[in-house]
């Protein structure tokens, strides 16, 4: 077993097409020996966003700090600290920070 | 996709043998359509603890609030907010809240 201290986590900029002002750190994944899934910490600056896209794996999400929305084909769902969220495989989605607030969340995906 | 608001989560007491002053809520799991894993929110009162046990599935953990330790065969690893942790399948472990602080964490497991 292992514990990774918060201060040892260094999020790195995400340069994926369609992403703006996003940083990510893998907290627990293959490097830590996790056999099935990968837990990442994702930080958006105010007005930052992930790509509006879909992929064949799901997202299991927990909001840590800040405000924003989870955007999909049917509109926006608001996100606040303590909220959890689920994006099914194949569904178009985007995380968008609020105009004047950053947004930080955990996003767990299956190991690929 | 869905968002489950923090205020709609109602942790329930855990009465497993070896558990003391533990409550748990499933945040995202089969009921939300998650195909691969289950994210739970676990709350220990001060001095509360989960069972000292092992099982053939892993834990992927993120500490939300409070203080405590992750106990294993080699001793205790301290836990503070923002820390993440990994317990491999088959390894004996126990989560223990501090003497004077509760401990709240997310614990994700594979769907069984």
Describe the structure.
The structure is a homodimer of 112-residue chains. In chain A, the strands form 2 sheets. A 6-stranded antiparallel beta sheet of chain A has the order 2-3-4-10-5-8, with no helix packed on it. In chain A, strands 7-6-9 form a 3-stranded antiparallel beta sheet, with no helix packed on it. The mean pLDDT of chain A is 97. Chain A starts with a strand and ends with a strand. Chain A has no helices and 10 strands. Chain A has one domain (12-34, 41-110): Jelly Rolls (Sandwich), CATH 2.60.120. The first copy, chain A, is globular and about 40 Å long. By secondary structure, chain A is mainly β. In chain A, a hairpin with an 8-residue loop joins strand 3 (20-28) and strand 4 (37-49).
Question: What is shown here, in short?
Answer:
Chain A is mainly β.
Map the helices and strands:
The structure is a homodimer of 112-residue chains.
Chain A: E1 2-4, E2 12-13, E3 20-28, E4 37-49, E5 59-66, E6 68-72, E7 75-79, E8 84-87, E9 94-97, E10 103-110
């Amino acid at each position: 077993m292992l514990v990774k201290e918060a201060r040892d986590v260094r999020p790195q900029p995400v340069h994926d097409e369609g992403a703006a002002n996003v940083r990510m750190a893998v907290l627990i994944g293959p490097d830590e020996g996790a056999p099935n899934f990968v837990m990442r910490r994702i930080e958006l600056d105010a007005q930052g966003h992930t790509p509006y896209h879909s992929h064949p794996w799901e997202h299991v999400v927990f909001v840590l700090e800040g405000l924003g929305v989870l955007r999909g084909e049917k509109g926006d769902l608001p996100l606040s600290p303590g909220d959890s969220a689920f994006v099914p495989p194949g569904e178009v989605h985007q995380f968008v920070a609020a105009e004047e607030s950053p947004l930080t969340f955990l996003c767990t995906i299956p190991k690929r």
